[in-house]
Amino acid sequence: MSQQPKPSESAAVAAPIAPKRPSRLRTFLDSDIVYSWQRQPVVILATLVTLTMFAGALFAPWIAPQNPFDPRQLELIDAFTPPLTTSDFTGNFYLLGSDSQGRDVFSAILYGSRISLLVGFAAVLFALALGTALGLMAGFRGGWRDALIMRIADVQLTFPSILMALLIFGVIRGFLPRSMHAEVAIIVLIIAIGLSDWVQYARAVRGATMVEKGKEYVQAARVIGLPDHRILFQHILPNVLRPVLVIGTIGLALAIIAEATLSFLGVGMPATQPSLGTLIRVGQDYMFSGEWWILLFPGVALLLLALSVNLLGDWLRDVLNPKLR
Amino acid sequence: MLAFLIQRVLQAIFVMFVVALISFSLFHYVGDPVLNMLGQEATEADRAALRAQLGLDQPVVVQFWQFVVNAAQFEFGISYRSARPVTDLIMERLPATLELAIISAIFAVVMGIVLGIYTAIQRGSWLSKFIMTASLIGVSLPTFLIGILLIYLFAVELGWLPAFGRGQTVRLGDWWTTGLLTTSGLRSLILPAITLGLFQLTLIMRLVRAEMLEVLRTDYIKFARARGLSKRVVNLRHALKNTLIPVITIIGLQLGTIIAFAIITETVFQWPGVGALFITAVRFVDIPVMAAYLMMIALVFVVINLVVDLLYYAVDPRLRVQGGAK
């Protein structure tokens, strides 16, 4: 730890190279956030794990030894190969073993975390956009809009969000024709998890907006005659985004867990497009017969993903909270 | 106080109204119940007759009113999947869920308070540090993974406890079946109850600990110690009492959460309860069961929230004074 240069020292070293104005990269590297990041080994580890899993998910088609969605690439004869074993029949090497259909568990996890992350990110973005928009409106306009939005938020907050997501998922599914269920599962899942989680963003943004609204720069913008929407989106919005960012990071971990839970319950992603939760559900069936790797590795992957994103969120919250400095 | 109460009751009624509206529209717009109930050979006249019999030729508002009246009497029609009255299905499975929920709530509350007090009083000991760290991990693990982990450890590896089901049950009265009176029933209950209660346990424990630490710093505790009262009396009689107000609220609110999370636990342990019934209903789009569950869970949450609000006023005299002064 002591070997890390203090921000002031590195700034001094950088000064002669860029005498007038430090580059943007240099400003970023000297910021408090980076300094705090360097000093916490747990956070560094969490970042590495998160980045590795993101990269694994993103580049799954190039990293994975096989495409688990393509039946032609599956070797049924290799079913239930234990981890770190080369199959006697086909000579394929299975790093984390294979499942009942000869599907490589490692590849399935890469492709599965792809779906988990896609649903997680999309659901958080959806909740974030909806919550921020409603929060801005409630905080800026006040009156009956504020009362209505916040009442709905209060009511929704009394239900646990995973139950909310499950109920919304069930209701949307009820309204859709049965033949569409498998195709649109991912979209329904995103909407359900997103709708179950907008309240926190709305509350945070509403509070921040009400504070910002009374500040001088907003009054100045009013005085020079800017229309409401410009004040709202160009002046207030950038100033209320900080809490949203923090909630969003922790929200990503929660959304990933919510998706995994729904898929585990058998009402999320279908077995033809497995996410990590679906893989765990499938793996549970083999727990009793001794094929532990089909269950264990997807479970560990989910755990690592949720835990490290959660840690990053906690860290970000502490760093961005001026009260804790 | 009265204004607050009226506002809360109105809010509760509004929530129930919205949920009823959603359930009703599920029924109304998803497929044609007449086609569902009559076979393909039915004539147009048969259909019209059934439609009139079910009141489906009435205006939508009248139908909605009829739906609400039926729901108030726990009439939700016939399950599409098992062709039995929804009320029977739910009644059959309700005891399993309630027993599981109540036992895990007791487990969570008792263990939570005990561990909370312990970690507050013995703050520096290695055991409390261990408990706090373990609780942190417990919070970040998804419920279903905890369940699977417990099954793997205690059912598959050690073989001490059953991995699924409810064991043998005994019939009490007309419809209540209980697993609490047989050994296999009790043994089957242990793992699901721990899984379901663990999250609540950590929550209650952390809350009790925080409140306790706060109270232990106040003057009246110092004074009680100075008077030479025994540690036991100071800790349990003076300090604990004042930590319990927020704890009661949380426990109340968590009861609803326990019933909600029972869905997950029941699926992991194949527990024959209402939550598992609901999951099956969602999977197979069994609208009557879904609607009934929606109404039921909404009612449970609304009632719990109301009761907690009332309790809050009953327990904390300061709030009453404030309300009266307004």
Q: How does the helix and strand content of chain B classify structurally?
A: mainly alpha
User: Taking Cα atoms only, what radius of gyration of chain A do you get, to the nearest Å?
Assistant: 24 Å
The CATH fourth-level homologous superfamily of the domain at 106-324 in chain A: MetI-like
**Oligomer kind:** heterodimer
**What would CATH call the class of the largest domain in chain B?**
Mainly Alpha
Beta-strand residue percentage of chain B:
under 5%
Q: How many domains, in number, for the residues of chain B? A: 2
The CATH architecture term of the largest domain in chain B is Orthogonal Bundle
CATH class of the domain at 106-324 in chain A: Mainly Alpha
Cα-based radius of gyration of chain B, to the nearest Å: 25 Å
The strand order across the widest sheet of chain B is 1-2
Q: How confident overall, as mean pLDDT of chain B?
A: 79
SS-derived structural category of chain A: mainly alpha
Number of helices of chain A: 14
Supply the CATH superfamily name of the largest domain in chain B.
Answer: MetI-like
Largest sheet of chain A: 2 strands, antiparallel
